[in-house]
Amino acid sequence: MTVSATGPAASLGIPEKNTIALMPQTIGGQKVNYIVLDDASDTTTAVANARKLVTESKVDVLLGSTTTPNSLAMIDVAAESQTPMISMAASAAIVEPVDAKRKWIFKTPQNDIMMSLAIATHMAAAGVKTVGFIGFSDAYGEGWFREFSKIAPVKGLTIIASERYARTDTSVTGQVLKLVAAKPDAILVAASGTPAVPWLMSNHIYVNRGSDESAPPGTSDVSSAGRSGPRTFHTVYDNGAAGSWSIEKNAASDAAVDVIGAVPGTQLLLRFALSGSSADSPYAAFVMPAASAIETYDRLMFTARANRPLRLSVQLRGSGGADDRWRRSVYLDQTPRVIQLPFGDFRHVTTVAAEHPDLAHIEAILFVIDTVNSRIGSNGEIQIDDIKYAK
Prior knowledge:
Blueprint: E1 2-3, H1 10-19, E2 26-27, E3 30-31, E4 37-38, H2 43-55, E5 62-63, H3 68-81, E6 85-87, E7 105-107, H4 112-125, E8 130-136, H5 139-151, E9 158-165, H6 173-181, E10 186-190, H7 198-202, E11 233-237, E12 246-249, E13 254-261, E14 266-273, E15 283-289, E16 299-306, E17 310-318, E18 325-332, E19 337-342, E20 347-348, E21 362-370, E22 379-390
Parallel strand pairs: 1-4, 5-6, 6-7, 8-9, 8-10
Antiparallel strand pairs: 2-3, 11-22, 12-15, 13-14, 14-22, 15-21, 16-19, 16-22, 17-18, 17-21, 18-20
Helix pairs in contact: 2-3, 4-5
């Protein structure tokens, strides 16, 4: 077995590798030996691993790899050695057309045309007419674009912009701004694994929402892409003490709010450590009074960074009690970024309330770390500053 336990596809390869512990130890009365190699999300290494497994280990079956490019690269090895190969990647190109080589190849996921059909059907039902596409600049991304291009016109969709990025890219801001400038009703992201593209990972672009998109990293609005950014602001926190802030948490977890130096002025340092059992639903919440001014604005903005990659749940809490909460999560890492969260994008925690929060009844803003996005035992620090309402 060769999997991408490291590299850009590690978030897929690691659980695949861990699954081996759950696999049967005997099949048909015969003992099964599993040999697991890491191809580091690299096609050359995947081919080398495949050759090593069939020539040195004399395996009866090849499992792998995690990604479409790696799996495609391994086909020749499987065909030459006449070793059945089962891929965990999705592209139809891995198994189609069934020729002399691909008769040895199988895969576990559904074909991308099936996923494209489901997405296109949902888009059409939501009133989407135009679509922007962004995907990997490899066989996976091209396969998605090819299959989605087939089904889009059938569902009355028009692809009006298309962009690509490498799996290892650390920024896709330029491509995203081009897509947003084209003003599509929706954007399809054809990506998998762990590419370092925080904005795409955490800032969904909702359909038919006008100018509600969250801004790319390092920017406060998307006006440079043809959309009007916020022009009026109400500062909630910018320098100074944190006297009005409070902490809420389960009994076993720890949390603290400190004021630290910044350039210029000061900022807040939120420290947390989640502890307890899963039955406790561990959490740490940093609570700030909302102020009545919130009802005259349409979004929350703040600058933030974390000491490690994590997801922060930003919540609006109303006067109706603990369950009267609306939330939206954002991705943070060591890079400071300006976050924009339109209030219309927040969703109720029970999903049964009204579509949008009633800002006149919002009493507090919560910055929450919980087990929805973090593991029990995790800890970290978040620096936050320049919190304001905008419109």
